[in-house]
Design a protein that fits this description.
The complex is a heterodimer of chains A (156) and B (492). Chain A has 156 residues and is mainly alpha-helical. Chain A has helices at 6-26, 43-61, 73-96, 98-114, 121-142, 151-155. With 492 residues, chain B is mainly alpha-helical. Classes of the chains: A mainly alpha (156), B mainly alpha (492).
């Protein structure tokens, strides 16, 4: 199974995905008014699915080309760590708003990125607060955008 | 002439010039840092342009784009890692020159040829775009469908290592473009009953997630604290007069290669850089010196990648088809400003078209001056610790995604797309066919369906221009399969 090849797994995954998409496309409703000659809303996504399916079949049938490892184990761990942090930051933006979520995110991500290098705590705090404040001022005062205020604060 | 003067008047305001300076410096710095590049700069700044007028927005983004393509050589020469893929081949001789102690010679040559290839290519675009647009207004949906398919087939055929992965990327781009209400009958597709998806997934979210978010995740995972760890010092700029005189033929050839490749939809600066290097080596009287620190091998790719800037503007402004990733982002910026790029743009928005050209020339001049003055600072661009750089970029990506949709939905979409970007990297699925087929998807679908509404499907094959494009598309897809077989037979 190990020699089956990453590309073949991708081919199988793509084929399964194509079947799911075709089923979903069949569920699209019919238009209320027909435009003469128009093939309808199903044609274009079907075209995309066919392309994907051809690609998938091609990958399954082609010779296993072997592949070098995408990342080392430690690199996967770092990837997962940052991916989870980004997901938590997205949730925090919704819950506690831009200011608190961003200060904390900057502090945490700075620590991750520095790795074994010890960062000065004062600089870390100043950086987190300064960047957050600068972004907030630019986006709200100069560009007049509304930033996430936070669900918790809107309920209070 | 009035349009040119109006464009100049709009651009030569203190605020616009100041923003352009910020943009081009940002482009050069981001372009220099491996893993980032000017494309990320445009992606990050795209949401900021919502609040700007169209002139300022285009001038700002154009400055980042030109700075990014130009700055790519800094990483290539100093570090041996291209700052941007557009300077991929510059590494081959640029870094050996640094190892030989000829850093300033290589950097100075890059700065000069970058400028003197960008400006003529933009002048070429100024001349060629109206001519092509004049022809394009006479084309119908059949021809535009054929043209888009041809553009995409060229991108897929570039996925030489695996054309099947190119097809998966292209199909995936089409599916993404299908999300939301369909353009003719407003039937909702793949919206899963949610209101947020009925308008489709915004280009900004796709770019922020797939381009910027995925790059940050990958760069962090692969470690490193800053690009440059060794001590490298660079003295001031030195005019590379003798190198330029010795390379007149090389520069002219590379410029033509860059302009032509830039013009071909989907090709762009990266391919121009690679092809020009290969051609310079094969035409050289001393090919054995290439790869060992030969200045010809630095001048050729750096001339070509900048010559492609003007080349890529031609299909963007005359046909509404982006030449590469950066012009796809500029197309998105135009759309955000309510401007429909295409054959009618020159007629409907003549001032804005000249703003594009003149902003590009001003930006190129600004990049030239900034790089001359700032050359001793180049190593410090690469010493910026990632723990200061990346957290700020992450905050910007999230802000951009939020502002774009004015809701958290944009943020969630962006995070999901960043993970999808990592998945594409894991399976080595090329990103360019995905992005360009996503961007062109709407145009392809509406032209296909309009064409079928006006006549039956045979019109796509009987109208000469449409047929020509479709045949060319088929050939470019089939050729990579047939070519090895033909070679095999001829060797027997």
């Amino acid at each position: 199974m190990k020699n089956f090849g990453k590309d073949r797994w991708l081919g199988i995954g793509t084929l399964v995905f194509s079947v799911v998409c075709i089923i979903a496309i069949q569920q699209f409703p019919d238009p209320v008014m027909n435009v003469t000659g128009d093939p309808g809303a199903k044609l274009f996504p079907t075209f995309g699915v066919i392309l994907m399916a051809i690609g998938g079949v091609g990958l399954i049938l082609q010779k296993n080309q072997g592949a070098k490892a995408f990342m080392e184990r430690a690199e996967y761990k770092r990837l997962l760590l940052l991916a989870v942090t980004l997901a938590v930051y997205a949730a925090a933006l919704y819950l506690v708003g831009f200011l608190i979520a961003t200060v904390v995110m900057l502090w945490v991500v700075m620590g991750f990125m520095a790795g074994e290098e010890k960062l000065n705590v004062v600089i870390r705090v100043l950086y987190s607060v300064f960047v957050t404040a600068a972004l907030y001022l630019v986006f709200t005062n100069i560009l007049h955008y509304q930033l996430p205020a936070g669900l918790i604060f809107s309920l209070l | 002439m009035t349009d040119v003067l109006s464009a100049l008047q709009a651009l030569l305001t203190p605020s616009c010039l100041a923003l352009m300076l910020v943009g081009l410096v940002m482009g050069v710095v981001l372009g220099a840092i491996p893993g980032l590049g000017g494309g990320i700069g445009i992606t990050l700044m795209l949401p900021l342009t919502f609040a700007m007028d169209s002139t300022t927005a285009i001038a700002f983004l154009m400055s980042i784009s030109i700075g990014g393509i130009s700055g790519g050589f800094i990483g290539s020469v100093l570090l041996g890692i291209p700052g941007d893929t557009t300077s991929l081949s510059t590494v081959l001789d640029g870094y050996p020159m640094t190892q030989k102690g000829e850093t300033v010679r290589a950097l100075s040559a890059c700065v000069v040829v970058n400028y003197f290839s960008t400006v003529p290519s933009i002048i070429l675009a100024m001349v060629a775009s109206p001519l092509i647009a004049g022809v394009a207004v006479k084309l119908g949906p059949w021809e535009f469908f054929g043209l888009c398919i041809f553009a995409l087939s060229m991108i897929v055929s570039l996925s030489k290592q695996n054309i099947f992965k190119g097809m998966i990327a292209m199909g995936g781009g089409f599916l993404f473009a299908s999300i939301g209400s369909d353009p003719l009958t407003s039937i909702r597709r793949f919206t899963f009953g949610t209101y947020e998806l009925s308008g489709g997934i915004s280009t900004v979210s796709v770019m922020l997630g797939l381009f910027a978010g995925a790059s940050i995740l990958m760069e962090f995972a692969r470690g490193g604290n800053s690009a440059l760890t060794e001590k490298v010092t660079v003295s001031g700029f030195k005019w590379p007069g003798r190198d330029l005189v010795n390379n007149v033929g090389n520069i002219l050839r590379s410029w033509v290669i860059g302009a032509v490749i830039g013009f071909l939809p989907g090709m762009g600066a990266t391919l121009a850089n690679v092809v020009a290097y290969a051609q310079a080596q094969s035409a050289s009287k001393h090919p054995e010196e290439f790869g060992k620190g030969c200045i010809d091998g630095v001048i050729a790719p750096e001339t070509a990648n900048n010559a492609s800037i003007g080349g890529a503007l031609i299909p963007l402004l005359s046909l509404g088809i982006p030449g590469d990733g950066n012009t796809a982002l500029l197309l998105a910026a135009l759309t955000i400003q309510g401007v429909q790029a295409g054959p009618l743009m020159i007629r409907n928005y003549p001032v804005l078209v000249y703003v594009c050209y003149i902003a590009a020339i001003i930006a190129a001049t600004g990049v030239f001056l900034v790089e001359i003055v700032g050359m001793p600072l180049f190593p410090s661009f690469l010493k910026i610790p990632y723990h200061y750089l990346y957290p700020g970029i992450i905050a910007m990506i999230f802000l951009g995604a939020f502002i774009n949709t004015s809701s958290m939905f944009g943020v969630y979409t962006m995070v999901a797309l960043a993970l999808l970007g990592v998945l594409l990297n894991f399976f080595e699925i090329p990103g360019t066919p995905f992005i360009l087929s996503y961007v062109l998807g709407g145009m392809i679908e509406s032209n296909l369906r309009r064409g079928l509404s006006y006549s039956d499907w045979t019109a796509f094959l009987t109208r000469p221009v449409s047929m020509l494009f479709i045949i060319a598309a088929a050939v470019s897809i089939v050729l990579p399969f047939v070519k090895p077989l033909l070679k095999k037979n001829s060797s027997k």
